[in-house]
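We now fix the convention by which a protein and its fold are recorded. Here is one such record, which you should read through line by line:

>
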Amino acid sequence: MKVPISEVLRRAGEYFMGDSPIHRAAIRLARTLADLEVPFAVAGALAANAHGHVRTTRDVDVLMTAEGLAKFKAAWLGRGWVEKFEGSRGIRDTIENVPIDVLIAGDFPGDGEPKDVVFPDPGDPDVTETTDGEALPVLRLPVLLELKLASGMTAAHRLQDIVDVMELIRANALPVDYAERLAPFVQAKFREVWATAQVDEDY
């Protein structure tokens, strides 16, 4: 379905001003999970935004444990959130009409097959950090890079994750030896993407 360019610009303006349905859905979910004392972390594009790579997105990615998701569903399904389909880990904010993709701690990014990078426990203080304003817990940069690299390396349809890594390298002026802070599984790919990120686009 085609969308008028004026509507595209309006939505983009709201997003970049931090007052879009995406942002409101993330904040509402975060406050609800905090009230339930359910550990969580904002992931995906919103986490990339928090680390300097600003781009739009259509959904909210949030990392939770399976137990945390079950607790949230028991308390709030039908009260502003619904499952995408029965038994789905994905949910939808019915007030903002925003999809929320839930990443489960212990699962594997990308193709879902076992690997040396795993979605971590959001309750681990080494996994998250807080941002200004609403103090939303987001994945720390090394964790976000590991997950995006592992995802893009093992799932052909996840190329945006590799692009995000390239832009995060640029936004944070990361040195090539930042790879040593990451899991060995993704170090070579980080160096490869780092080299690509050094290409001058001013032509």
User: Anything to note?
Assistant: The mean pLDDT is 90. The domain at 5-197 is CATH 3.30.460.40 (Beta Polymerase; domain 2).
